[in-house]
Structures are given as C-alpha cells and as structure tokens.
C-alpha cells in the first residue's frame, strides 16, 4: 500500500499571524507535525503543501524538500482542503507516484505523535473510506447543547431523557489531528460526504488544536508542563 502524507500550511493566518512557523518551545509549530510524520514515513512520502516561500524555507531548513508552491487560488480563506489534497495527488501522480492512501496531518496539532498515526493506521482497511481522529466531546448534544427553534425558544439539540451527563451516549468531535483517506474514495467526493468512517480516539491533550491566541497560550502551558 503506497501512502502520501499531506501537511497543508497556508501562509495567511488571521487569528495568529504566521502561525505555522511561529516558535512553540524551540521549534516552529509545523515541525512538530513533520517530526510525527517522519516517525512513520520516509521523507519521499511527506508533502508540505504551501503557497508561502518563508514556510517553504523553514521546512527545508529541517531537511524536508518542499516539492512545489501551491497556486494562489488554493491559498485563500475560501480555498477548501479537498482541492488542496487533489492538487497534491495530481502533482505526485504526474511524477509517477500513485498512492493508495492519503494521510492528512494538519500542522495545528503539535501534541499528535508518530505513535498516534501508527495506531490509527492499524484501524484502516479496504472496507472503510476514512479513519479519522476524534476526542470525546464535553458539549454533549443530548445534555448541554441547545438550538433556537422557529419560535425563538431554546430546545435540546438532540432529544433524550437523560438526567445526568454520564448517562448520555458517548459523542465524539473531530480533533483535526489525523485523517487517513482512501484515495479511490477521495476522487469521488470530499471527505465530509464519506459514510464509511472509522474513529481513532485520542485523549484531550494529544487532541489539542491551535486555532486562536487562547489555544496558543494553552499549548505553551501544556508544552512546559
């Protein structure tokens, strides 16, 4: 089974400027994901997809070649991950490398390690379209979450007669750390339309995703703990 790891790293970041190459501890944020990928895959199987020359230079300073700069049309706020993944696939296939499985690793998950990727890979087989990493959510729709109905009243997001949160069914949220995708399925539809999806559960710390300045502060605390 041939694999291709794609680490998408856009230059623009409004919440935290230059987030992907901002230092967390003594390393740029993106290096944590590169290091995790290198624990499992050869460099030739790892692709950092970026539109940014500075990100390219930082990645290559740790010895990983960046094979292309993605076009500006795939570097906007509205550009989708699906198109970015297809672009990377097309590049490698045009070079003669045809992967069966694509592993998407977002650089905003610095506490995801190589062992997590290995464990998730063990759950992947030909029967599923994707294995995706998750964590148990604290915002259980049977208990905490509410929606506003047509009359303007708050109602439960998901009906259920549970008096304690512990009695509710376990509900999971995607943590953004690992996506293991069958290439054949990806060609047919984007990942949000997949129906044969298997979960890989991670703990809360390993699942930490950096999207805001508060997330970054917490990452610094976790890193120094």
From TrEMBL:
Gene3D superfamilies named in the record: Spore Coat Polysaccharide Biosynthesis Protein SpsA, Chain A (3.90.550.10)
Keyword Protease recorded: no
Keywords for this protein: Nucleotidyltransferase, Transferase
Domain of life: Bacteria
Pfam families per the UniProt record, alphabetical: CTP_transf_3
GO molecular function: nucleotidyltransferase activity
Record-given protein name: Cytidylyltransferase domain-containing protein
């Amino acid at each position: 089974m041939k694999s291709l790891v794609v680490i998408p790293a856009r230059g623009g970041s409004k919440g935290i400027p230059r987030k992907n190459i901002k230092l967390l501890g003594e390393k740029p944020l993106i290096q944590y994901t590169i290091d995790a990928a290198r624990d499992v895959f050869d460099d030739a199987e790892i692709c950092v997809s970026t539109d940014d020359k500075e990100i390219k230079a930082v990645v290559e300073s740790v010895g990983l070649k960046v094979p292309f700069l993605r076009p500006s049309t795939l570097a906007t706020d509205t550009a989708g991950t699906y198109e970015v993944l297809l672009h990377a696939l097309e590049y490698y296939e045009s070079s003669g490398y045809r992967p069966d499985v694509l592993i998407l690793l977002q650089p905003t998950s610095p506490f995801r390690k190589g062992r997590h990727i290995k464990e998730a890979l063990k759950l992947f087989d030909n029967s599923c379209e994707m294995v995706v990493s998750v964590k148990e959510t604290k915002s259980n729709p049977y208990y905490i979450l509410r929606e506003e109905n047509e009359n303007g009243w708050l109602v439960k997001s998901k009906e259920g007669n549970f008096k304690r949160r512990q009695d509710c069914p376990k509900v999971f949220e995607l943590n953004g750390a690992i996506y293991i995708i069958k290439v054949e399925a990806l060609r047919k539809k984007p990942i949000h339309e997949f129906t044969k999806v298997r979960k890989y559960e991670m703990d809360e710390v390993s699942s930490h995703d950096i999207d805001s300045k508060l997330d970054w502060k917490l990452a610094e605390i976790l890193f120094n703990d």
